[in-house]
Design brief:
Layout: E1 3-4, H1 13-29, E2 33-39, H2 56-66, E3 71-73, H3 75-84, E4 91-98, H4 101-114, E5 118-122, H5 133-142, H6 148-154, H7 171-182, H8 187-201, H9 213-221, E6 225-228, H10 241-259, E7 265-267, H11 279-287, E8 292-294, E9 301-302, H12 320-331
Helix pairs in contact: 1-12, 2-4, 5-7, 5-8, 10-11
């Protein structure tokens, strides 16, 4: 099994000290377990609304830090190690969800420079243009020149979120409240709510956020792995079986057409067991021919675990001390949730 250790210095000061701490603490905890990181975007510069999302500088520093205690490996190699019992001590796989263009433009050059493999789960419908519903909300708020109070008043009649936006203090707070309010609405109602927000805020921006087919092919040509993430990124549990099957199978077929190779890895949209997908969807993923699938449940995997419900850890702490402590705690989390009904 191919694995890559990154042994580059993480720099002086606090980051260097954290690296030393992480190296000692994590080495004591590591065994033949697989940690899978999940990212969505890596911005070229810190994001004004969601500063907690990684930018290029922080992502590079984080990868270098993790390389002091982990063995980076591709997810497909890690899955083979889980299946046949050859998983290396301290294995770590890097994954990205959705298919944002900054995955290619910002994250990929950093990964290549450090020799780190990664898997990118692409929602195939957005290769042809368009934005995910949550991004439509965020970008509408981002490009609105009005202050937060004015935006709050404008969105007071938003279906599912009108009451939730009251008292918001920042654009970030507004976005989170609207997203939470409409996330689990039926698809038609949610799309209507998103359109309502865009009309209220005068949203006309059409900047491409997602990779097109050529960009997905380019990412693959750099040696990165591509996995499926449905077509339209629905919450599978809310769909009837025929619709869920279509989303899963068509997303796989779309990517296989674009890349000319079999797609064997899948990521459940949103990914919380029971809330976002159920046991029926695990069965549909199996029947579609996937060999492994990942969730967004925290935890680490060991030999013998369910390969169709592998947990992933989301590192959101900007403070490296807190990140190291949280990561250490995640290494101990073995009884993670799985969809059973």
């Amino acid at each position: 099994m191919t694995a890559v250790s990154v042994r580059k210095a993480s720099g002086p000061g606090v980051l260097g000290k954290v690296a030393v701490l992480a190296n000692g603490v994590l080495t004591a905890l590591l065994s033949a377990r697989l940690s899978i990181l999940i990212f969505h975007r890596v911005h070229a510069e810190p994001d004004s609304i969601f500063p907690g999302e990684p930018d290029a500088h922080r992502f590079k520093a984080l990868m270098a830090l993790l390389g002091k205690s982990f063995n980076f490996c591709s997810l497909d190699d890690a899955v083979r190690g889980l299946r046949d019992g050859t998983l290396r001590k301290g294995s770590l796989a890097v994954t990205f969800d959705d298919g944002y263009v900054d995955n290619l433009d910002v994250a990929c050059p950093i990964l290549l420079a450090l020799g780190i493999p990664a898997t990118f789960f692409v929602a195939s419908g957005f290769m042809r243009g368009g934005r995910m519903w949550n991004d439509r909300i965020v970008e509408a708020v981002r490009h609105c020149d009005a202050d937060v109070t004015e935006i709050e008043r404008a969105l007071a009649s938003t279906p599912g979120a009108g009451t939730a936006v009251q008292g918001a203090r920042t654009k970030r707070d507004l976005c989170l409240r609207v997203l939470a309010g409409i996330k689990y609405l039926p698809e038609t109602e949610r799309n209507q709510a998103v359109g309502h927000v865009e009309r209220c805020l005068g949203m006309t921006q059409t900047d491409a956020l997602m990779m097109n087919e050529d960009q997905v092919r380019k990412l693959r040509s750099h040696g990165m792995t591509i996995g499926a993430h449905t077509v339209n990124h629905p919450i599978l549990r809310t769909l009837d079986e025929a619709s869920a099957r279509s989303e899963i199978e068509q997303g796989k077929a779309d990517l296989e057409r674009v890349l000319g190779e079999e797609i064997s890895l899948f990521a459940y949209p949103n990914g919380k067991p029971g809330a976002d997908y159920c046991a029926r969807d695990v069965r549909l993923v199996t029947e579609a021919g996937f060999t492994s699938a990942v969730t967004t449940e925290w935890g680490v995997s060991s030999v013998g675990d369910d390969l169709l419900q592998l947990p992933r850890f989301t590192p959101w702490d900007r403070d490296m001390w807190r990140f190291s402590l949280r990561l250490s705690g995640n290494l101990l989390r073995r009884n993670y949730a799985r969809a059973t009904a």
